[in-house]
Every structure is written in C-alpha cells, then in structure tokens.
Amino acid sequence: xxxxxxxxxxxxxxxxxxxxxxxxxxxxxxxxxxxxxxxxxxxxxxxxxxxxxxxxxxxxxxxxxxxxxxxxxxxxxxxxxxxxxxxxxxxxxxxxxxxxxxxxxxxxxxxxxxxxxxxxxxxxxxxxxxxxxxxxxxxxxxxxxxxxxxxxxxxxxxxxxxxxxxxxxxxxxxxxxxxxxxxxxxxxxxxxxxxxxxxxxxxxxxxxxxxxxxxxxxxxxxxxxxxxxxxxxxxxxxxxxxxxxxxxxxxxxxxxxxxxxxxxxxxxxxxxxxxxxxxxxxxxxxxxxxxxxxxxxxxxxxxxxxxxxxxxxxxxxxxxxxxxxxxxxxxxxxxxxxxxxxxxxxxxxxxxxxxxxxxxxxxxxxxxxxxxxxxxxxxxxxxxxxxxxxxxxxxxxxxxxxxxxxxxxxxxxxxxxxxxxxxxxxxxxxxxxxxxxxxxxxxxxxxxxxxxxxxxxxxxxxxxxxxxxxxxxxxxxxxxxxxxxxxxxxxxxxxxxxxxxxxxxxxxxxxxxxxxxxxxxxxxxxxxxxxxxxxxxxxxxxxxxxxxxxxxxxxxxxxxxxxxxxxxxxxxxxxxxxxxxxxxxxxxxxxxxxxxxxxxxxxxxxxxxxxxxxxxxxxxxxxxxxxxxxxxxxxxxxxxxxxxxxxxxxxxxxxxxxxxxxxxxxxxxxxxxxxxxxxxxxxxxxxxxxxxxxxxxxxxxxxxxxxxxxxxxxxxxxxxxxxxxxxxxxxxxxxxxxxxxxxxxxxxxxxxxxxxxxxxxxxxxxxxxxxxxxxxxxxxxxxxxxxxxxxxxxxxxxxxxxxxxxxxxxxxxxxxxxxxxxxxxxxxxxxxxxxxxxxxxxxxxxxxxxxxxxxxxxxxxxxxxxxxxxxxxxxxxxxxxxxxxxxxxxxxxxxxxxxxxxxxxxxxxxxxxxxxxxxxxxxxxxxxxxxxxxxxxxxxxxxxxxxxxxxxxxxxxxxxxxxxxxxxxxxxxxxxxxxxxxxxxxx
Amino acid sequence: xxxxxxxxxxxxxxxxxxxxxxxxxxxxxxxxxxxxxxxxxxxxxxxxxxxxxxxxxxxxxxxxxxxxxxxxxxxxxxxxxxxxxxxxx
Lengths: 987, 89
Hints:
The structure holds two protein chains of two kinds.
Chain A: E1 13-22, E2 25-31, H1 35-41, E3 48-49, E4 56-57, E5 70-76, E6 79-85, E7 95-98, H2 113-116, H3 125-128, H4 135-148, E8 162-175, H5 179-190, E9 195-198, E10 215-216, E11 219-220, H6 221-233, E12 238-241, E13 244-250, E14 254-260, E15 273-287, E16 291-293, E17 306-308, H7 309-317, E18 326-331, H8 337-345, E19 349-355, H9 363-370, E20 375-376, E21 381-385, E22 392-395, E23 398-401, E24 404-408, E25 411-413, H10 416-420, E26 424-428, E27 433-438, E28 443-445, H11 455-472, E29 484-485, E30 509-511, E31 516-517, H12 518-526, H13 532-539, H14 552-563, H15 567-570, H16 584-588, H17 605-610, E32 614-618, E33 621-626, H18 634-647, E34 649-653, E35 658-663, H19 667-674, E36 686-693, E37 699-709, E38 712-717, H20 722-736, E39 743-746, E40 751-757, H21 761-768, E41 784-789, E42 792-797, E43 806-812, H22 816-827, E44 831-833, H23 836-845, H24 880-883, E45 894-901, E46 913-914, E47 928-936, E48 941-949, E49 958-961, E50 968-973
Parallel strand pairs in A: 1-7, 8-9, 8-15, 9-12, 15-28, 17-24, 18-19, 18-24, 19-20, 34-44
Antiparallel strand pairs in A: 1-2, 3-4, 5-6, 5-7, 10-11, 10-29, 13-14, 14-15, 16-25, 21-22, 22-23, 26-27, 30-31, 32-33, 34-40, 35-38, 35-39, 36-37, 37-38, 40-43, 41-42, 42-43, 45-48, 45-50, 46-47, 47-48, 49-50
Helix pairs in contact in A: 5-11, 7-8, 8-9, 12-14, 18-23, 21-22
Chain B: E1 3-6, E2 10-13, E3 18-22, H1 36-44, E4 52-58, E5 66-72, E6 78-83
Antiparallel strand pairs in B: 1-2, 3-4, 4-5, 5-6
C-alpha cells in the first residue's frame, strides 16, 4: 500500500490490486481507480506537457473537465487511443498508458524551450510571424509547426473495433445520474413515463459518490444511493445507461449519447462492440448535468500538484487517495475549506488557507481555524515554486513549503447541453454565472446545472423536474419528498471575480489546455478586440477539447475588466457538440469499408469482369473503364478500342445512364415546358437530343429523349444527373404545373442498355435480331424500333455518341447480361467491348459535350455550341427568359472550341489554363481552360476541347498553355475533329 | 435532426426529406414581360427572415410529395404543414 493511499474508505476495492504502466514504469492501483487516482496514489503528479509552452502539467480535476492529464492508452498496435482524460480512464489490469506532447521524455522535454522563448509566441503569433522569407513557409515553417501542433498522435493503423448504433425513443430522457438526475428519473418513472437515465461515469451518483455525512430518508448517503440505483434498475419503465455521455443536443429533442462498452475491461470480448451510439428522440428532457468547479488565476497556477479543491476531496473520499502530504488552499469560497478540513483529518498537513476575498469569516473558515489551520483573508498569491512538482507557494510575500496547492474559484453550472439546445442563458447574480433561463426545446434543467446546490435542494429540484416532464407528456403523479439530514458543505458560487496579476511575473493561466494566459487576454483587448467571439478566436481561449469547462467564466471576468463592462454585457460564446470528444468509430457505426457507400453495378458487370475490364467509380456506379488485353496498359487498350469502333464494331454498356418514363396525355407539353427543344412536334418512334437548363439559363443536364407513343416518352439523363433531373421534374410537376396530367417513373435500373457502335453495327445487330428491319429507311438515325434481340423483347434506339453508325439496345435489366454475351458471340472477332475511357475519346473527336466536364453550371446552350437545339417557336421553357438577357449573348463569353497542339503528340492536361499571349505570368488572367483532352488513335494526334472567352472568334489563332515543364502552343479550332460533315452517322 | 410532420405520412425524421427552399414562389406566367431586374428577383432574391418562414419540403424517402411548412428559422419549431397550393395558415 502506498503512502498516499488511506487505510480505509472510498469506493475502491482494496482486495483487488491492478497492475498498470505509465510511460513504461510499472505501478499498482486498485479496482475502482481511474488512471488519475491510481497515479496520485503512487505519488505521480507529472502527467503531460502543455500544448504550446511544454510546461510540466499535472492532474487538475477528477472528471470530464480535465484539461491537462491527456494520455494515450494502448492495447495493441491498432488500438492506441490518444487524448483520453486520465481522470476518466477506468483502470484495468495490464493497462498501458503514456504521456503526450513531449520529446524525448516527459521528464526531459526539449519542447520546454518554447516556454523560455514565450515572448515570441503570444496569442495570435502566427498572424505576425513566420512570414519571411516566403519560400521558407513551404519547406521549413509549415512542416515544423505542423509537427509541433496537436497533443496526442493519431493511430497509424485502421480501427479494428466494431461500433454499434441504436435509435431509442422515450418519454423522458434524464441526462446526469447524480442526486437531481436520480430523483428526476424516479418521479418520472413512478408517474408512468418511460425513462432513459444516462451518466458518463461507471457508477451513478455524481457527487454522492464522495460519500459524506448526510442521510437521506434515514439511510446513510452511500446506502441510500445503492438502494435508489437498485430501484431504478429494477423498474420496468427505466433504462439505465452508465458509462454513457450525452454529447450532443440536436433539434426537436434529438439527443446523441455514446456508451462505452469495453474500454474498462482488461480482456474485451473479441466479437463485442467497443462503443454504442444512441440516437435518442425524447418527448421531454431533464438536464441534470451538475456543476464544474473553477480554478483560480494566479501566477504559477499550472504546476503539477496544483489542483481543484473539490478534486482533492473526491480523490480522498471516493478513491482513498491523499493527493499530497502538505497542502495550501487558495479559495474565494467558504465551502472549499471543507476540502482542507477533510485532508487535514486524513493526515495531510494544511499549511495555510488563503482566501482572496477581503474577509474569511464563513463557518468552514472558522472550523478550519479551530482545527489549527492558518486562515488568511484578503490574500494575494504572488506565485508558486517547483519544476516538475510544486514545492511551495508565496502568499502575501511569504513563501510556504507545500507539495499540493488546492484552488477553488467556486462552482459554475454545466450549461453545455442546454446551450447546445439553443436555450437562452442569463447571468444570475446569486449564482454569479450563467444559468439556463429560457428553454428552446421541451426540456428543463434541475439541480446544480441550474445553480441549485446542496443535496436536499438537488433531490427536490430533480424530483420536481422529473414530475413536470412526465406531466408534460400526459402522465399524473406526485413527487417523492426526500428527508435529508446532516448535509455538510454545499458548493458555492464563485466568491470573487478573477484579477489580472500585477506586474510582469510568472504566467497566470486561464486556459490550461491551450496555454492561454492573462497576458494573452490583455493583448487581445489591447489590440482592439471587443467582441468575446473575437477574443476567443484570437487567443484560442476555450477552444481546446475541454471547450472551456474550466476557463470560460474566468475569461469573461478578465475580459469584462479590460473592456470596462460587466460579465453579462460581455456575453458568452456558443457551446458546440461534442461535450467531450467522441470517436470516429461511434459516429461511423457500420458505415465503413464496403458498407460506406452502396456499390451499384450494371446487369453486365460480371461479364465485364470476366472480360478483364478495369473499373472506375462514377458516383456509386462501377463502370468498365477499359478492357485491357494481355500486356496492354490503359493507353494501348483505349487506342485499340477506339480504332475498333471506328473501323468495325464496338460494344458498350450504357446502363448507368438515367432513364425516366414520362407518361400521360400532357407528357409532350410537360417536356416542352421543361427542355429547350420542341417536343410536341416529335413524332412517335423518334428520338431527339434534349438539353435541360435551370431557370438561370445554364445547362443542367442532357440526354436523348425517345417518344414511344403520343403519351409516352423515354427520357435519358447523364449517369450522375439521374436523381437530380427526376427531382427537378417532380418539383415542376407537383408544384408548378399540377394541372398537367403526367406521371414520372424512374426506370434507370429497369433497363439494361447495350450500345453497338461502328460501321459494322448494323450487321452485328441483324445477326442478333434477324426478324427486325434495320434498313436505313425503316430505322433511320434518331428513330426507335421494337423487336426481339437475342430472343428478348427490346427497344432499339438508333442513336450514336461516337459519330459512327450506332444502336442502343434496351432490354429489361434481368436479360441484360444474356444479350451482352449474345452480342459478343455474334460479333466474334469483329466486336470489341470498350469502356468509358474510349467512349470519352470517341465523343470528343466529334465535339459532343459531357455535362459537368465541358460545362460547369455556367454554360448556356449557345456557349456550348448547342444553340441549334433551342426551340425557336416555343413561348416559354425553363431557362428561356434567362438566356434572353443581353449578358448571355456577350461575345466574350466562354465558348466551346477545339484545340490542336503544335506538337501533335503532346496531350494537354485537363484543367490547364489558356493564355492569349506567350510568356505571361500571374497577375495576367487566363482566357479559358482545357475541359477534355485525349490522344486520338483515329486521327493520329492529340485533341482537346476547351472553354475560351470569345472562343469562336479566335478560331485559327494561337493560345498558350503555361505548364511547369514549359509553355505549350496550341491553335484554336472548331470543336469537331473527326468526320465534320457527319456522314458516318447516316450510314 | 428535425422531426417533420408530413401532411400525408405524419411525423418523420429530417433524413427522409429534401429541403425545397422558400414556398409560394409562383413562376411568373409571362417571363418575357419582366425586366432583367424583376426576373433576377424571382431567381435569386429570397425573404430570408429571422423567425417565421414559409418553405417547402419534399418527403423524398417516403411518399415523394412536396408540401409547405411554416418553420421558425431561429428555433426550428415547425408551426404548421399544409399542401402545395394551399395558402399559409
């Protein structure tokens, strides 16, 4: 048993010893310890190095508000979790933890030089330094700063653990299982409500876990607690969730909880989940989140061994650990003296109690004096001594030896979740802090989190809140009245505002985790920052992972003084989720790896795989990109595929394109109002290339539209545009033109589409469809035919995206693979499957645009050279009014053109910028950019499409492409390179 | 996550819906009679109020229908939902 462990008392199991390692050193603790309590039991206070200055830091608190003791816990190479608060790490046998942010060791950290150079690193230093020379930023400053930033190190291996997610509904969600929360859960459940009660700790009880002399309903506090928990655990309408943090409050009473299932186990089950995310929709919420003790601001208030008075009391009472041998207490409240008295009774010398207020005449101060402890009033702390452990404190000019400094700036309600729910806070003069005032959701706060301190008061407040919640839900009941006796030492509100230390002495810390001192706050005020939002961001105060739990109020107090305002006038910043950090795993749940996004494959997918296709992702779809034969790389394969299409016949899977059945007596009128083209004049059995604009006149999508019957159209869209085109259609159909009799059905997945393209396409198709009349007269370009292809009833569109004779065979998806395989067999050596890469080259050779590649949402039909498609005689269509604007016809608009490189083998990079003169550098502006670029096997030279300002007027002129390896000269051409007359289409 | 009362399906979580922008924006029947400024107002200018806002939602992963809603943009409280074509309550 260590010197710091008491002989008895606390909730630790003295019969169960656990072994653990910290920074490689072996220690022992007890079951029920946290890592923090176990380290303190071994006399270890130095647990980390601060963020910026690398100052030695110790354990400040006993809970979630811990800013300093951030550690990495390691189970194995893949399970190494950084930035855990040692105060919340449950000890297990074999636990391995290490400190962070130090090199080469915690005891000797070279980063400490930052502390000595601290005048160079005030708040916002990175706005003023590391500017020169500019070239040093990329090679020197950024890598150094990046490596120095952060605290823990991210794991290098994927997270092997499983995380579950659940949704739950309840009548009343109670957040916080201390006295108020337990009472609220009981009264709500007794009234008939279904209750979920959660608490971040492994045991319910909150402050009751510290024991104490109080009696509730005749039972000693600890005894009463056990009974109350048992009653709730056995209650059929109550779900208890310990080790569960409510971390986010979302609209309409949606609260997110994360339950930690295995982190406290020495041997977690191999197949179990590590954490469980609960998305709770509660009819009513009771927040019983408790209060947080605040530190005091004085020079040297951050040394290891300086901790909150309440934390030292918790370590003593709950864990049986004396945090030191000789303590000094600095306080602005009377109640903190009780902590000193507790330690004194447990054998810790109390050197002095220094009350910073003018008078120290409270009951506990008097009790301390009676116990022989020196109590000073009107004290000023000049500083502390000690390097890796506090060794003394100087009060009012006197230096006293001590190895433990306790500080208490009073208690402040924890309003994080209330604030997240967008409830309004007001400043309470009695609580001397912000308290919940107006709820935004169906929620109410109870107990310390609304400034109601003390066991009896918390029980009554919680009971009333739980009952109110149940009543709001329609249940009826009464609240139990708790009989509380012998209560000692309530928490108190902050007794005095923080003061900036006089003179230029040692640093006085306000935010421990982000290393923000009083000097930083003063600097912000000096540099003219008036809004608390600006002060926060400029100094980073309150922006660490603890979100200012132990710094917010002190910050407001200091800033108020500097700005000559009151704290309520300064206001407060916004709390955001998560309350404490949440793992990515819990948020991802099962949506990882193969389940991250659905994979969509076409009916012909397996045939393509068998044919050796290499796939690319187009949205969620897998599309065959190219079909390499033995020894081919992509370049060679694509060249072969393109030549095969131009010379013989190619086979292409076009199933991913969107398809929408537009059906009804007003179908033609509907499409006429939506697309730029005239559709009322399109005969049944014919196709038209349709362009869809937004109301602002810019191209939104395109595709071939076939009229199958007077009242039936088959509309195709781009692969990526299917969902949004249908959404746009539904918007107009339901909300703009509800008088039209037309209905829309997505048929993208119902049709497999097999394209045959090339001079031999008719011959191949005839072999597959011997009974169909494929003569040019019977099936001209842009016409529809019905018949059996490979024995399957099919719609055949004679359309081409390659500029060659072509057909698109539409069959029900279930038959797609069969028809594809039949086509391969029928074509034999004369048919070549080709992928999206070859498809891109072939269409670019013909100047056919791809919406979203050659256009970017700012191109009109005329810009893209598609003005011919716009119906001249239509009175109106979506986008018509916008393209009539004068600006939409300006001659210097970006227009689609072709580019030929002077060196015909040079292939431009897509996205490359075009300059109108050689040798230009920024700030000269480009006149356009390359949208599509390929090597053309059919033509023997490179081709490119580009959008260029006033492009059509520049045809024949040179442009210049600045590239890292040297400038490339190009000539502007028409955007059609192959068969400009279009004769091959009409073969 | 909002709980949105679809007039056809009842209360469903926000994830089932797609937002449809400000409600009651009738497409001008004769756009050719508007000046560029008037047309631009229809395209781009929105009330953007702090407080009560009439807007459209579509129950994309449910019945697929559009409907109108009155939502307070500061509290996210939905005061009412009503069908397309009906006037705001």
